[in-house]
Amino acid sequence: MDEKNAQRRLQHHEADVVVVGAGILGCAVAVALGNQGRSVIVLERSLREPDRIVGELLQPGGVQALEKLGLRDCLEEIDAVKVFGYDVIYYGSEVQIAYPENVHGEEEGAVGKADEMRGVKRKRPEGRSFHHGRFVQRLREKVLAHPNVTVVEGTATGLVRSGYTDQILGVEATVQGQPDAYFGSLTIVADGYASKFRKEFRSDAPVARSKFWGLELIDVPLPMPNHGHVILGDHAPILLYQIGTHETRALVDIPENLPTASIKAGGVKGHLKNVVVPALPEQVRPSFEAAIERDRLRSMPNSFLPPTTNRKPGLIMLGDAMNMRHPLTGGGMTVAFNDAVLLSEVLHPSIVPSLEDTKLVLQQMQSLHWKRKGLSSVINILAMALYSLFAADDAQLKALQQGCFEYFKLGGNCIDGPVGLLAGIIRQPFVLFYHFFAVALYAMWIYITEAGALLVPLRAVLSVGVFYKACVVIFPYIFSELRT
């Protein structure tokens, strides 16, 4: 049967599923569906190794999903670095935020409780950081070797539609300079943040308030090895994390129309030299300054796009084409791999014997929209809310930023809860809601008590503005997750 399907894919360009894009999600979905016996065609514009400055940190929840997909070994042989948590540096003061022990996703809760009853401590969760391109190429190796998957290097140019029902039947493409077409019962669009098909199916567009500018530092001594570093101060957040034995990625968030990055102030290089370098730990500065002179400056927009339900017969849009959040928390790949797991579950042949049953597929996509909320809504809301606090540009946000750092310093559940959410291993939106407003209340307390006795009454009144600002920050993102 595999040989017959392979001939069908190669000669007639027909399969059960056509996947547009062989990136993080496209590869994962192709393998997951191929493992279930589905016949899959993957269309990818270029099979050369990608060169990007984001998609380099996989949280523990993503590692768990990768293991479920049978792709855990893709983290080997790419010089990946183990990640045990974060080092948050706030105006020079540090707090370690380690991934929590004995905290598991909902699907592992029963095992975790059994371990606790036996008095057994489970291994602390680990993330991985790496060169994005090397990881993608390892995923592609798995796809290329899969007997149920055929990979075609070509550019998708349009969608094939039924003239009667407007159902999506496949993809038009250009392969080796010639027009072609590939047909499937289901077409999955996973063509990334700059998706050429997104605007055909939704009226809203991604919103970007800033860009990440990336540099690669060589042999830099980080304050806390095997940890991501978040540097906060009178500037938007700066991230540092090792991506290889000798390489460390620096990502500098630069909001739109920032005066210190204007042409008059020397542009982006001026901002890096005048604002970022003085804010870095002293031992990092020489490598960072060398990278400014050596590297070509590259950027990626930090976009937000709320998720929507797939309603088009014959089409599924996933990954960054359907849902994006600020990459501050490194949650994008974790969401993608989790989506691949969930998609394979809701479309399992025991539930959906034939993908030609478009009515049943659409019902299952409605189910997927809500099943993914446990993880995706937490990571989406957390990323956008944290960015608002970490890029604080007014007094209330600054108070919330300070409250967040001081909350981490309390330790215990004040670290385990938030970092468990960030790591993708606590998948309960209420836990996020609880910790966010605990931070807000703690920020109000600090705001009131750090003033002199004479100012306490005034500060008590003004602290209401801090709480109001917290509501303004988080509720729009909560509402965006509740829509269909």
Question: What does this protein look like?
Answer:
Catalyzes the stereospecific oxidation of squalene to (S)-2,3-epoxysqualene, and is considered to be a rate-limiting enzyme in steroid biosynthesis. It comes from Cladosporium halotolerans. With 484 residues, this protein is α/β, with parallel strands linked by helices. It folds into three domains: 2-49 and 58-73 and 133-200 and 308-375, FAD/NAD(P)-binding domain (3-Layer(bba) Sandwich); 207-303, D-Amino Acid Oxidase, Chain A, domain 2 (2-Layer Sandwich); 377-482, no CATH class. Helix content is 41%, strand content 23%. It contains 14 helices and 17 strands. Strands 1, 2, 8, 9, 10, 11 and 17 form a seven-stranded mixed beta sheet that branches. A seven-stranded mixed beta sheet has the order 6-5-13-14-15-12-16, sandwiched between helices. The chain has a three-stranded antiparallel beta sheet with strand order 3-7-4. A hairpin with a 2-residue loop joins strand 5 and strand 6. The chain is globular. The two termini are 39 Å apart.
